[in-house]
Fold these 2 entries.
Entry 1:
Amino acid sequence: MSNMIFCYHCHAQHPREQMRLVVSKTGKRWRCIMSIEAAKKTRAEREAFGRKVSAENKADARARLKARTAVSAF
Ligand SMILES: [Zn+2]
């Protein structure tokens, strides 16, 4: 079929309307929107997780600091 394009990400062919031309270090490549969206979602999840962990670490550090301050007051 002429409207099928090879997707470098899936190593498979997808219909032309599902493909996006992306520019990478090695040049222009066709990649399907499914893999782009999946990567975006993964990154968002990772960032959300990173934010949560750093917020917890900060809260933990604050709690430790408070505890130390309370002890040294005596
Ligand atoms: Zn694909």
Entry 2:
Amino acid sequence: MSYVLAVSGKGGTGKTTVSALLSRLIISRGKGSLLAVDADPNDNLAAAFGVKAERTIGDIIGAVAKNPESVPKGMSKERFLEYEVQSAVQECEGLDLLTMGRPEGPGCYCYVNNILRGVLTKLTADYDFVVIDNEAGLEHLSRKTAGRINLLLTVADATAAGMKAARRVACLADELSLKVDRKTLLVNKCRLCDAPAPEDIGPGMEFLGYLPFDMKVAEAGINGTSLLDLRDGSAALEALEAMEIV
Ligand SMILES: Nc1ncnc2c1ncn2[C@@H]1O[C@H](COP(=O)(O)OP(=O)(O)OP(=O)(O)O)[C@@H](O)[C@H]1O
Ligand SMILES: [Mg+2]
């Protein structure tokens, strides 16, 4: 059984950064095999690992929906998609990366999507850990993952509006009946990290702590270098290491 960590939050709060830093933590602790999933259609998790996204699930869906004949004769659509998805898994340093992307152009992808859900569930079960970098908002998450989320990590910025958005996530997770073991909150890009824990963060939401604004992280973002290669002395990474996550 894999341990699934889903990262959510408002746009620009640092979901992709936190997903990449979490991945680095899991790798450096030698915790087991890891699949990182970029579930944001505006894919950029690959960039946080210093690589370019290759083939996406969106490309596969688009190709099959456009040309159903591409499924080889004698092969079920499910088997074919399984094979295609496997070939879209990209190897990075210490982890595998799957980029969801989105299919190009209008069209009905429901049929392919439905098969795909099963294929993805099967794929993720092969890993000890799965880190999912989500697009802002939880509705997408409920559509894409039917399975259990062991840890939902909401990233917020250190403002009143950020806290309000985090509370909304906590409520929404309940409303959408997501199966979540731990609902957690992390406040990112913080300049006052010794501040007390924020109050009233939402029903059942656990406060993990503050991640400081870190020039090394900001520089990696600007230069396009991998967050997996962050050297010691990254204040954000050190703060994440001290949290009870994995
Ligand atoms: N702790 C940090 N210290 C310094 N810069 C950070 C930190 N966390 C994130 N950033 C920077 O903030 C910007 C936004 O971060 P990121 O792309 O991870 O956010 P996001 O929530 O994934 O955004 P989007 O909603 O667009 O997907 C990036 O330039 C990133 O380098
Ligand atoms: Mg992002």
